[in-house]
From TrEMBL:
Organism: Nocardioides marinus
Transmembrane domains' residue ranges: 24-48, 247-269
Organism taxonomic ancestry: Bacteria, Bacillati, Actinomycetota, Actinomycetes, Propionibacteriales
Region (Disordered): 484-509
Keyword vocabulary terms for this entry: Membrane, Transmembrane, Transmembrane helix
Name the record gives this protein: Capsular polysaccharide biosynthesis protein
Statement: the UniProt record of this protein carries the keyword Membrane: yes
Length: 509
């Protein structure tokens, strides 16, 4: 008798490993959400702190048209269309230099212009000047300084332009008066009623008209207003910081970070190639027969639903069922699930045989092993069932012995012999990779693949399905195994069935 423990003895350790992995995944997701929440809170606090350190003040100007202003020639207040040009003039280097000189600042014009902005409200004659500084006082001084300096600069430019135009008009008047005096002398020397006298007289009239126009223009310039505008709202400081202060900004940033963390967790979950829920399998071409807890002994409803779906899916009776996992890299099949299913079938009055396809397992219940049956299929008639009514046949003490005799003909002969005595023959294998499982697949009525929620990848699942079909399986179905550490979502079929506890096996020497 071998001292090697049955494979099912490792189930508590597997469940503990699954539970650890589930806890680690939950810890990673929680850590990601908390980290992004903390980062969002710190970011919100930092932004609010930066906003609190910047003080703003705004001054509002009413701009009026000026005579002689090259930027608004002949304009009226309701027709002033060049406010954008005036706004650019506020932010010119010339105005910034005057502001720095008047306020006694050592900053360069470019540095002042970086903290000053000007905007034009729609359909108005207003300019809104906003300045930023380290304090409310400095911000108000800077905004008011730009407003006053711009108005003075604009008035000075207009006054200079008007003075130049007035001097030009007066000079032209003097020149026209001299020309008219010369023409009057020529008219007196010319013969009366002559053509020359008539021409000179017309020239005198034209000069008199020009002199009148020039004098009128000079009078208009002398009477022109130099009011360039006025400050209708003196510089006043705006509220500092963000609404809600640093605490509100930190809370808002934390909420944004938490939302981003949840979105990240959901995105990672959607990109996860592993099967986690029964809903991911229901729409596939491979039928899902049920969902059973990894601790199948504590899930009679799930086992009962699996048994009912299995009997409905089997195309004929007696039937041969092959159960296996998808891939050893994902997880080995749960022995508890198969044991509970076999006991449930036997409790329903069916004659059930359970064959172990993997080696290194002692024969149980009888002196014959699966290796013995492969060598002599007729020995199946001498096998006896266990006390719970299940006929169990172990594999062999060495796996290589099974692989040496695992040919389809011998496997088919053994299964045919068992069909004559049993209603359901259950073949238990780890995966479909062993030669014996591949040889048996062609002689089965259904291959049942165990999918472990949160562990089995879709790639390994479909690889196992293709392998089963390649080796001649007539029908392939799945069962989702959930429970401690599996990470899958529960789903069970209705219909309670009490499954009797399986008595402990007795090793045969």
């Amino acid at each position: 008798m071998s001292d090697q423990a049955p494979a099912g003895a490792s189930s508590p350790a597997r469940h503990r490993s699954r539970s650890l992995r589930t806890h680690l995944r939950f810890l990673a997701a929680t850590t990601a959400v908390l980290t992004l929440t903390a980062a969002g809170s710190v970011g919100g606090w930092w932004v609010a702190q930066q906003a609190a350190d910047r003080h703003r003040a705004t001054s509002v100007l009413l701009v009026t048209p000026l005579p002689g202003n090259p930027f608004s020639p002949g304009g009226r207040g309701d027709e002033l269309v060049n406010l954008e040009t005036e706004a650019q003039l506020v932010r010119s280097d010339a105005v910034a230099e005057l502001v720095a000189r008047d306020l006694g600042l050592s900053a360069e014009p470019s540095e002042l212009l970086e903290v000053v902005s000007v905007d034009v409200p729609a359909n108005t004659q207003l300019l809104r000047i906003t300045a930023e500084a380290g304090s409310d006082t400095d911000a108000r001084r800077l905004a008011q300084g730009f407003a006053d300096t711009f108005l003075a600069y604009r008035s000075a430019r207009t006054q200079s332009s008007m003075f130049d135009q007035l001097e030009l008009a007066r000079q032209q008047v003097k020149e026209r008066v001299r020309e008219r005096v010369d023409l009057v002398d020529k008219l007196q020397a010319a013969a009366p009623d002559s053509a020359a006298a008539t021409l000179i007289g017309q020239q005198i009239v034209d000069l008199s008209t020009q002199i009148g126009l020039l004098r009128a223009r000079a009078s208009e310039l002398e009477a022109g207003s130099l009011d360039s505008g006025q400050v209708i709202t003196p510089a006043s400081a705006a509220p500092v910081g963000l609404p809600g202060g640093t605490v509100g900004a930190a809370v808002a940033g934390g909420l944004v970070g938490a939302a981003l963390g949840l979105l990240l967790v959901l995105a990672v979950a959607r990109l996860d190639p592993r099967v986690r829920a029964a809903t991911e399998l229901r729409g596939d071409e491979v039928p899902l027969l049920g969902c059973v807890s990894a601790d199948a002994g504590q899930d009679p409803a799930g086992v009962s639903g699996l048994r009912a779906a299995l009997l409905a899916a089997l195309p004929r009776h007696p039937s041969v069922l092959l159960t296996a996992g998808c891939s050893p890299r994902d997880d080995l099949p749960d022995r508890e699930v198969v044991d509970a299913l076999v006991r449930s079938l036997a409790a329903g009055g069916l004659r059930v045989a359970e064959l172990e396809l993997d080696g290194a397992v002692e024969p149980v219940g009888t002196a014959a092993s699966l290796l013995d049956l492969l060598l002599d299929p007729s020995r199946s008639t001498a096998l006896d069932a266990d006390p719970d009514g299940v006929l169990r046949v172990g594999g062999a003490t060495a796996a290589e012995h099974l692989d040496e005799v695992a040919v389809a003909a011998r496997t088919g002969a053994v299964l045919q012999e068992l069909r004559l005595r049993m209603d359901v023959v259950v073949l238990r294998g780890r995966t479909l990779a062993s030669p014996l499982a591949q040889a048996a697949a062609a002689h089965t009525d259904l291959v049942l693949l165990q999918v472990h929620g949160g562990r089995t990848s879709r790639r390994s699942l479909w690889s196992a399905v293709q392998d089963a079909r390649t080796w001649g399986a007539v029908q392939v179905s799945t069962v989702l195994v959930t429970g401690p550490g599996s990470g899958g979502q529960r789903w069970t079929r209705p219909g309670p069935v009490l499954v009797p506890e399986r008595p402990p096996r007795q090793d045969v020497a």
